Amino acid sequence: MGEVKTPRRMFLISIALIYVCAFSSIYVQIPGLYGDEGIVPVRLQMPKVQRPLLEQLEASPSLLWLGPSLGLGPQQALELICLLGVVLSLGAVLLGPLRDSLIYLCLWALYLSLYNVGGDFLQSEWDMLLLEAGFLAVLVAPLGLLRCGSSHRNHDSVTFWLTRWLFFRLTFCTGASKLASGDPAWYGLSALSHHFENQMSPTPLAWFVHQLPDWLLRLGAVAVLQCEITIPLMTFFAPIRRLRLFSFYVQLFLQLCHILTGNCGLLNLLSIALSVSLLDDEHFNSSAILKKKKGQEKKARACAQTFLCVLVVLMELATYLFILISTVILFNLQINWENKTLSSKTNFSQKEFDELLKHFQSFTIWVGVLSFTWEAVAAMLMCVCTRGLVSKVWSLIQWAVITAAAVAIFALSVVPYTAMTGMSILPEVREAYSAVERYQLVGAYGIQHRVISTEGRPEIILEGSHDGLTWTEMNPMYKPGNVNTAPPILGPYQPRLEQLMWQAAQEGNDQSLWFTGLIQRLLQGKPEVVSLLQVDEAQYPFSRKPPALIKAKLYNYHFTDPAKDKTHLQAWWRRKYKEEFFPIVTLDDPTLEKLLDESGLKEKFPKQPSSDTPVCQILSHIRGQVKGLSGSLVLSTLLATLVGIFLIKAVFSWASGGRKPRPASVDHKTKKTKEPSETVEKSPAASLSTRGGKKDSDERKVDSEKSPRKRK
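User: That's the sequence. What structure does it adopt?
Assistant: Structure tokens below.
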């Protein structure tokens, strides 16, 4: 693989931008989720018995335990962690010198601190992926203390290879889990007929895509499986550059489709950030490509070079042909010319796929070993070729340290990668993985695959009442409730409560103990929790007085079909009652008290009064500025500000570049190129003049012939 300077910079900027979205999304929701009056107060996790700091950090790595020493309460400590994360990540996005390994180490430590105390609200797959990708950014980013000349670029390909390995694990495991879980919707290729309405946060465009013909949606399911399983296997580690570029654009198109139909989640953004590991500098530097082509044209083409070029083209065509033929055979694609449709069905069973998956995982691990060895040896040779003995030794030392760290990360990643098939791993590697598991250096992906429901999208609907006779629904902002309301557009904002309610509707009440805390806070009318459901008080039916009773029902939601639901043309959804999700309770109900006790959410000690330090005052002031604003609005404003700053920088850069004087040596170089036979070196004074033409050159020639040296 060629130089990766530009993809490396794009990866670091992307990770920093994702950190901005993640930290700011959590910050807005802290009072309602973890505040003193929130659903799961974080102060309940503080140790009642004082323990040494190092012992506490070893048990649960989190900077939250430093809060008391700074005079901060648990909620304020979480807010400070988020704000520091936003500031550092913004700096890394805007300023190149801040894209340093130490900055990314701080960002990773801050997010790990949130992850370890966040409970159910921060245990999603993209949280684990952000931690692993964030730790890789620590290795990929240059270390300012070791930045001497260009030596740090020799091992860029080694560390950057780890991002490609992570992207492969993420993509391949996501696709393989669809079939390994035995999901009948994917084996029957009807998954996309239900996916768009069942996904966590559909967009209005998802409604229109849902109306596509069934044969086209079935073909789309085939394309998704091939993009996530076959194409990564064939192209991610291919030695042919054009195959990797093909894979990059396929994965980019797939993620853009996910974003357009299912909002811009952190998982999609992280996938795009990791996909740049398939690129190199030649893809961005067109002038370098032209020079390379010109240089190749000047050389006489040997028979071996011609044969090699033909062989590479044949390998590319064979790869594309294999992907096409495997698609036709595995999914039995047949064209119906009369109806102008395409039929498809799987030609393999789950047992056959499970057997193939075991061989594929073993094969991909060895392919990864060979690919990594190639990159490591190439980087070592670059270090050996470094000029100067001191620079050469220093480069080799850096290479050895970086390669050892990369080998350790690769070995650890094999453990969660093989969790799907249970392949045997060396006991020493498993022990090492268990020792560092709390730091989330590597993660397992695809394990949390949920079988797509063909009965509709299960949704929890909260209802409140003052008298027990009239019940009013409390519909959240970011999930389906009112059937006439269009699906929301969130952007990169991550509403954690709606995410857990979506999961709880699929898993059942027994696995959603935090839901009891939500019911308690709504009965108490806590504004911090109410703002998670509705920021606009006019949209919340109990803004003046909290409900005396609350219950929850479970409905199955479907997208409306204009051909069938002609009586409800204005509706986006249709729903059907399924069952009771949570019984009717009051604030002093013994049932609620028992559930709170079982959930571990009862008050164990009174909250401590907050101090009046300058840091606390600053945190309170910032909180007051965003109070009453929706999280999507805050994050959109922040991102719009970033875009404005980039536009201003681009305008100033263009303006300053336009005023630069044209180099005087350009014409001279052009002239020299056009007249290769000219061997007389011109003086600096003569080279500054571009006028005079042939007459001046003749005069200079006569003068030179009359000179004493010439006569001699």
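The first strand starts at residue 334 and ends at 336.
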